[in-house]
Amino acid sequence: RMRSRLVNGRTRLINQLRAILLERGITVAKGRRALGLALATLVDDEGSGLSARMRALLEETRREWAELDARIAALDREFVETARS
Fold first, then answer.
1. CA 43 → CA 11, 14, 58, 65, distances in Å?
2. Domains in the chain: how many in total?
3. How buried is 34 (Cβ within 10 angstroms: 0-12 exposed, 13-18 middle, 19+ buried)?
4. Are 55 and 48 in contact (CB under 8 A)?
5. CA 16 to CA 66: how far, in whole Å?
6. Does the pTM exceed 0.90?
7. How crowded is the C-beta side of 10, counted as CA atoms within 13 Å?
8. Do residues 3 and 75 make contact, with C-beta atoms less than 8 angstroms apart?
């Protein structure tokens, strides 16, 4: 249940990021990887057309996404260890 909640939260966050970018005319290919790569480029590119504040918000959200990924991975490792016992 905990993992499912985290995965749902990550999905919600990713959808929010896509919506924010789409509102600014930026479309990104499907998939988490494509969005992650696009975010890295947009956040680092002052010429992206995004304000400094928007780039900072995207970076903050990207860190939140990374934290969710880490928590999901930790639970996955825990499940594997429990299954081995």
1. 20, 15, 7, 14
2. 1
3. exposed
4. yes
5. 15
6. no
7. 20
8. yes
**39-58 per-position pLDDT tens digit:** 999 988 888 889 999 999 99
Look up residue 78 and give its amino acid. E
d(CA 3, CA 50): 34
Range of the domain at 26: 2-84
Question: SS in 3 state form for 6-68?
Answer: HHHHHHHHHHHHHHHHHHCCCCCCCCHHHHHHHHHHHHHCHHHCCCHHHHHHHHHHHHHHHHH
**pLDDT tier, 30 (very low <50, low <70, confident <90, very high otherwise):** very high
Mean pLDDT, range 62-73, rounded to an integer: 97
